[in-house]
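Record 1 of the preview.
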Amino acid sequence: MNQQELVFTTTAKNSLQDLIHQVQEVSLIAAERVRSRIFHRLHLIHHQPSQASRKADFGALEGHFRVATVLNYKIYYLVEDARIVVLDLILDKEVQSNS
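->
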């Protein structure tokens, strides 16, 4: 069983709140769908951090950085021995422009 703690940086927490509020301005149903899908992916990341994601390259920074995509958003996170740190959630412009 995975004993890693899932923690959010302030940036990730603010990004998640901002993106949900932005979608709520258009549709409450869509915002709930986005929230649900993101939290489902975070649940999967917490239990299987390397599944359904890829390595993220941050140049000279050392660490096990990963990125997972859900809908039009990318979730960047760092896998450490005792915890998984969600670094940020970002709108994926490539996915958005192809829609």
